[in-house]
Design goal:
Largest sheet: none
Number of domains: 1
Distance between the termini: 20 Å
Structural class: mainly alpha
Bound molecules: zinc ion
Strand content: under 5%
């Protein structure tokens, strides 16, 4: 099972495009199926990227913001 931090990186590395090795792809699928924080993030990421793409055709994949990673990890390990 991947952690939230690993998932967020893998998501940008190819999960969204389904280009990861199959076992990594499936590990990410499993993470997102069980992690509401990352599900929410994926949804908002897709919306954001969709908006950016409309403005800038050659938008590069941004790095995962550190603040966001910390927020998700904190939310996850909190209760
Ligand atoms: Zn997560």
């Amino acid at each position: 099972m991947v952690s939230c931090r690993e998932f967020l990186q893998l998501m940008l590395d190819g999960w969204l495009a389904a280009t990861l090795p199959r076992h990594r792809q499936r590990a990410c699928d499993e993470h997102v199926a069980t992690c509401h924080a990352c599900t929410d993030y994926v949804d908002s990421y897709r919306v954001t990227v969709g908006m950016l793409r409309r403005h800038r055709a050659a938008e590069r994949t941004p790095a995962v913001p550190e603040d966001l990673v910390r927020a998700i990890v904190a939310q996850h390990s909190g209760s």
